[in-house]
UniProtKB/TrEMBL annotation:
<dbReference type="Pfam" id="PF03710">
    <property type="entry name" value="GlnE"/>
</dbReference>
<dbReference type="InterPro" id="IPR013546">
    <property type="entry name" value="PII_UdlTrfase/GS_AdlTrfase"/>
</dbReference>
<dbReference type="GO" id="GO:0047388">
    <property type="term" value="F:[glutamine synthetase]-adenylyl-L-tyrosine phosphorylase activity"/>
</dbReference>
<dbReference type="GO" id="GO:0016874">
    <property type="term" value="F:ligase activity"/>
</dbReference>
<comment type="function">
    <text>Involved in the regulation of glutamine synthetase GlnA, a key enzyme in the process to assimilate ammonia. When cellular nitrogen levels are high, the C-terminal adenylyl transferase (AT) inactivates GlnA by covalent transfer of an adenylyl group from ATP to specific tyrosine residue of GlnA, thus reducing its activity. Conversely, when nitrogen levels are low, the N-terminal adenylyl removase (AR) activates GlnA by removing the adenylyl group by phosphorolysis, increasing its activity.</text>
</comment>
<dbReference type="InterPro" id="IPR005190">
    <property type="entry name" value="GlnE_rpt_dom"/>
</dbReference>
<keyword id="KW-0511">Multifunctional enzyme</keyword>
<dbReference type="GO" id="GO:0000820">
    <property type="term" value="P:regulation of glutamine family amino acid metabolic process"/>
</dbReference>
<dbReference type="InterPro" id="IPR043519">
    <property type="entry name" value="NT_sf"/>
</dbReference>
<keyword id="KW-0548">Nucleotidyltransferase</keyword>
<dbReference type="Pfam" id="PF08335">
    <property type="entry name" value="GlnD_UR_UTase"/>
</dbReference>
<keyword id="KW-0460">Magnesium</keyword>
<dbReference type="InterPro" id="IPR023057">
    <property type="entry name" value="GlnE"/>
</dbReference>
<feature type="region of interest" description="Adenylyl removase">
    <location>
        <begin position="1"/>
        <end position="457"/>
    </location>
</feature>
<keyword id="KW-0547">Nucleotide-binding</keyword>
<dbReference type="GO" id="GO:0008882">
    <property type="term" value="F:[glutamate-ammonia-ligase] adenylyltransferase activity"/>
</dbReference>
<feature type="domain" description="PII-uridylyltransferase/Glutamine-synthetase adenylyltransferase">
    <location>
        <begin position="315"/>
        <end position="452"/>
    </location>
</feature>
Amino acid sequence: MSLSLPLTLPASLQRLVDHHLAQWRLAVQQAGLASSLPQLGDTFMSELQQVLVGSDFVAEQLRRDPHMAWRLVEGERLRRSLAPGEMAELLAEALAPATTEDELARLLRRFRQQHQVRIIWRDLLRHAATMETTQDLSDMADVCLEQGYRWLYRHMSEGLGTPCDHAGEPQHLVVLGMGKLGAHELNLSSDIDLIFAYPSSGETQGGRRSLSNQEFFTRVGQRLIKLLDEVTVDGFVFRVDMRLRPYGDSGALVFSFNALEQYYQSQGRDWERYAMIKARVVAGDQQAGAELLSMLKPFVYRRYLDFAAIEALRNLKQMIQREVQRKGLEDNVKLGAGGIREVEFIGQAFQLIHGGRDRSLQQRPILPVLDVLATNVYLPDAAVDELKGAYLFLRDTEHALQAIDDRQTQMLPIDALGQARVAWVMGFDSWADYRTQLDLQRSKVAQHFAGVIADPDEDEDQPQLDYEEWMLLWNDLPEAEQAQQQLAEGGFQDPVRAWELLRNLMGSARVRAMQRMSRERLDIFMPRLLGMACEQEDPDLALERVMPLVEAVARRSAYLLLLTENPGALHELLVLCSASPLIAEQITRYPVVLDELLNSGRLYRPPEIAELVDELRQELVRIPEDDLEQQMEVLRYFKRAHVLRVVASEIAGSLPLMKVSDYLTWTAEAILQQVLELAWSDMVRRHGVPRRHDGSPCELDFTIVGYGKVGGIELSHGSDLDLVFIHDGDTDAETDGARPLDGGRFYTRLGQRIIHILTAQTTSGALYDVDMRLRPSGDAGLLVTSLDAFARYQREQAWTWEHQALVRARPLAGCPRLGEKFIRLRADVLGQEREEAKLRQDVLSMRQKMRNNLATQATHGGFAPAAFSAETLFDLKQDAGGIVDIEFMVQYAVLAWSCRYPELLRFTDNIRILDGLRDAGLIAGEDVQRLQEAYKAYRAAAHRLALQKQPGKTPGDQFHDYRHDIIRLWRQWLPEAADA
């Protein structure tokens, strides 16, 4: 879309320009350049005033460096495009004086600032078309990466030697540019997403000492990132984001070609295919890079029509839609509805699905891809024209927003001056005129986005209920008697209470304060709620449970609109809330999870652990690396969404108890891994990398060990996490950062950071309650323990009850190597030979203490009588014949017999340990079956009670037979129990 600037400036913008001009003239005068002003010419001065309307950044750069104006005028660079290769020549000339890395960094930043001014100038004045601006920015990134890398490689090779393959041939790094950089589509303030690779293993030759190629290129990569990304008094060159590499922040910084190929073949996710579409070699060895991309092409483009990609893209599309609904991104021209991201998604969706068979789709920039969609009749010509026009308009808007402060933003301004600036730069006389055009363009994109890979279920006709009678009840406010009669006829058993609920909602402060549009949405929604509530098995209960949610979201009426436009979601809401007050309360507190009700197929199909891990990583990789607040919100939403899916499946009967615990545990593990990586990255950014005992850098030598329910893969609703933190670093050696810490303090702060992320109360609540009391010496011990110290404690100081707890301990997240060490240590500690009489007495003593403090009155201090009374309560966990008795018997068996039967140490959950005891011939098969049945029955009852927000207690006459069997077996295994 061709835009031209209005001829006259509004008064507010003229004052802004006058201020900037006065500051610049003062700087020119102080630099002794006032007499040279005529050399700049009238055209420059006229254009300068127009540019200053749109860019404080340009004003600041010209003020800080008055000579810049004359350099820019030289060679007519503000009026013409740079010739091919000219950017590289200019940078080479600028960097020629650099003899140190600090000088290189300073010269790179000055080069960047000058060319950023040139590019903004040409873009704002429309001397450069939109995509010429993005090409110019991408070229600048390319040459900075290439020449910065070559300089570092040359200087590092002088001291460390030249990296070579096994045949002695020198090697270079391959730098892949992803995203907008890969497609030559950088915006005025883009991050650059990179992946580092090298051809093959080998080592350096000719240096003071030999290094592996990976270590050499890792050092080069680290210094290249710092060279570009570090903010100094001269600014920065480009912000660098490395999170798209395999394994994200927890992965190596550089990979060999073979390692990359193996990763993508065996573990590559669909979102990584999506990202790889735009991958391009931006620096380093171009020839080797071309070979790498050729190796990876089969991963990106499948040879057949890729139906698997359709479902993956549909999920990604739903993720985009949920993010827009959830975050309030209406004024974000990139991420909001009808924004830049949706145009890119349309093109890349067709590329993934059809690109393997249609090679014309195998290209990076979005506009040529859209042209192919029209040429090859994937989309109508008119649709493509609308998408291209909207895309250019949105990219121009993005540049107008970013040109102001050279700041990474896509949010429309809310202040009058900012709005006036953007409207003027975009060629409009007023903000209102500009918004009208923007909304039109975005509506076109949103319409086409909605039609791409639409779910067939979305098109099915939904049976419509007759809401008219309920509309009259809600809107006409009949007399109480008439309203109650209608409610009774509709199926409500307590119409007086139902009418009271409706009247209370109508009169609530939140409803009275609703704006007109929100009130209209409520008036449309309520008749549908009443009509659908009448279809539930218990309409009274459904209405009672859902009404607090309606009041809670009254002023956030997008949720009401969501439920109105998605009757299936409203139905699922009523079913879930009717089944569980706990779920009703959670949805009311955190209505953001209503998005999960939009897809019943997804709602009732919790993902496997690999899908969980991948989904969470996809969510987090989109968040800026330093935005901990948003990362914490993503983690909390992820947990609540997946707990809702588990509960929905549990209520529907499609997920048995053991699977419920599996999914809840897997969710916790996925979250813990990401929390650890976030905390580690934050600590390393602040303080550098800690050291191992041999002096080498640690690579996340840290593990989170889970005890209790999470260790035994038996998490239930509302369970806390019993955790122990273990590291394998040198506590005395300092980290290698600008603010070094000794290893001991580094790991302690890392542990504190993890706990903070897990337990901090944000607007979305906490992730988990965390209990660290099972660490060595409990609350008096160190928060984080070295593996050696943990081993000494377990072997020399630990009580028997601590070894009982160790039976259900396993690594949940962190370093796999350290996790294996822990598993071997656990086996060694638990498998030591013990004196059974002393062991039995220790176990009995601890069990009695627990009964004394935690059991109900009926069984306090001993076993229950032969008959259990309905008048008393049975604590499923603590009372005699309950869950803890089974756990203690299992733990006793492992401690007593694993020295002779090490297979008992393989698992940490009670069910499989009991299987092992049966298979080893230590317990009769019928006794094991009885214990397992009881254990599952108790846990299932506890789950049901938790969903009903009730304590884990049942009438004393329930589970009568199970309790007697468990007490009988307890007395057989631990005969002194009869005297307890």
